[in-house]
Design goal:
single chain, globular, alpha/beta, Rossmann fold, 231 residues, eight-stranded mixed sheet, 23% strand
Length: 231
């Protein structure tokens, strides 16, 4: 069962969902939301990471628009709301909120000072920018949107980044994937895996494009990556 905490940033305070492992001290992982807010899918991922031995925290990044967004991908109305939130969202402010979350969890008595991040969809772009702009020790990006416009930021990357790309992603078309791969595949800090036949959100359990085999493969790679970099 998770708990709630409040994070203070330069612009105000926002909430986050926290799941603790059995260990007294552990590395932390910031879970970066999709466009549906801190919903059950995100809480389950956070709980799952705690079960793997990490102090996991999922911040409410939509708080400037509307605090406490918690919707699903099951209805047309919810999808409409999700895209409204996506279009209203300030990416740069979101990265600053993630930096504040990293600082917050690093001071937690249960954190051993190492902090990673993992993000999905919108969170996949934010995870990439977290790797480039913050002091996160390791970051993982699942099917990040808009990355073709962000690849130049990789020049600032000093910590390891793992990327999962769905080859049939309807939100990241083939030309965008080509830009991403050409720019990043030889970067010494970046490891990229592509998933043939997979659409966007292939790792979202219960989602329309969930692919159990690909999700298991990607999640296994993510866990190995965190174990290697964070311990």
């Amino acid at each position: 069962m998770g708990e709630r905490t409040t994070i203070t940033s330069k612009d105000g305070s926002f909430g986050a969902y926290v799941a603790r492992p059995n260990a007294a001290k552990a590395p932390a992982v910031v879970v970066i939301q999709e466009i549906f807010g801190v919903n059950q899918v995100m809480r389950d991922i956070t709980d799952g990471l705690a079960g793997q031995g990490y102090l996991a925290i999922c911040p409410d990044l939509f708080w400037r628009i509307e605090p406490g967004i918690d919707i699903t991908d099951k209805t047309e109305a919810e999808w409409k709301r999700a895209f409204e939130l996506f279009n209203a969202f300030d990416i740069d402010a979101g990265v600053e909120d993630i930096a504040a979350t990293i600082a917050h969890i690093r001071k937690d008595p249960g954190c051993d000072r190492k902090v990673g991040a993992v993000g999905y969809c919108l969170g996949g772009q934010l995870a990439f920018l977290t790797a480039c702009r913050t002091d996160a020790d390791a970051s993982v990006s699942y099917y990040g949107v808009g990355l073709e416009n962000r690849v130049a930021e990789a020049e600032k990357l000093t910590h390891p980044l793992l990327m999962h790309i769905a080859e049939e992603d309807q939100f990241v078309p083939k030309p965008a994937q080509a830009v991403i791969l050409a720019a990043l595949k030889d970067h010494p800090q970046i490891e990229i895996h592509t998933y043939p036949g997979c659409d966007h959100a292939f790792a979202r359990e219960g989602g329309e494009h969930f692919d159990a085999a690909a999700a298991k493969l990607a999640n296994g790679r993510t866990l190995q990556f965190f174990q290697k970099v964070l311990g």
